[in-house]
Design goal:
The protein is an all-alpha fold. The chain has one domain. It contains 9 helices and 2 strands, in the order ααααααββααα. 43% of the residues are buried.
């Protein structure tokens, strides 16, 4: 229900912003860690519905252990962590004595899930830890607020005025009108953040961030819709009333995070 959606959103928003701005970095990382694992579990459940018997517990344990390792070692050693997971997952399946039938699909699904969330959830954490001082807090804030604005603009404008379908075979309710709403609120979000608390963000970085979010947010949403459509479900779960599951709420946010992290590192966040 639409009313439930708003109530949950307004209840969660102060908690999320408070954790980002006022609490130590480890609290934010703990939230990202928990949300990443719950999102990964939902994706594994979808894969299992498709007949890919991806091992649930070993995949989540591998991801749960390696995420903090990635954040501790830092971005410059991320490649080694990813390579380790890529090789560990097939070995886990082998020594766990899982069935040989369907092994290729199961290993592929488990490995993809672990690597996908290690990259995306890892980037969500590194947005906070890869920058010195208050820059980490500001990069997380501008990323989250801009993505949330883009998602909200797309949802509300698309729900009320959407007529021209964006990708009917993947997500029948997504519309080009929604894309316009998302672009408008993404632009407002970047402008708002730069005006209110991120004045040192160069204009070229702000413009690049707006362009990246406007493209990546709807792509992340559609990528998750592919899995749901294939599995024949509307939502990844029903854990969040009015919103679906954690995978539904993190699709755009997590998908865009590695690109936004790379943008801030390559283009710069200081004057």
């Amino acid at each position: 229900m639409k009313g439930t959606r708003e109530v949950i959103a307004f209840a969660f928003l102060p908690i999320a912003l408070g954790a980002i701005v006022f609490l130590p970095a480890w609290v934010y990382l703990g939230m990202v860690w928990a949300i990443t694992l719950m999102s990964a579990r939902e994706l594994l459940v979808l894969l299992r519905r498709l007949g890919q018997p991806a091992p649930l517990a070993p995949t989540l344990v591998t991801l749960g252990v390696t995420l903090p390792v990635l954040w501790t070692l830092g971005l410059h050693k991320a490649g080694a962590v990813l390579a380790l997971v890529l090789l560990v997952m097939p070995a886990v399946y082998l020594f766990g004595r899982y069935p040989i039938g369907g092994a290729a699909a199961a290993i592929t699904g488990a490995t993809f899930t672990a690597l996908y969330f290690l990259v995306t959830g890892g980037a969500m954490g590194l947005l906070r830890t890869a920058f010195e001082g208050t820059l980490g807090t500001k990069t997380v804030l501008i990323h989250c607020l801009t993505i949330w604005g883009c998602d909200s603009g797309a949802y509300y404008l698309g729900s009320n005025f959407g007529k021209h379908r964006l990708a009917p075979s993947v997500s029948p309710k997504k519309s080009w009108e929604g894309i316009i709403g998302g672009i408008a609120l993404a632009a407002f979000g970047v402008w708002f953040c730069r005006t209110v608390f991120f004045g040192e963000l160069p204009v070229v970085t702000a413009v690049a961030l707006f362009a990246a979010v406007s493209v990546l947010a709807p792509i992340g949403d559609l990528v998750e819709s592919v899995f749901k459509r294939d599995a024949g479900v509307k939502d990844s779960s029903d854990l969040i009333p009015g919103h679906g599951g954690f995978l539904d709420r993190t699709d755009s946010l997590f998908f865009a995070a590695p690109f936004v992290l790379a943008l801030f590192i390559l283009v710069g966040v200081s004057v």
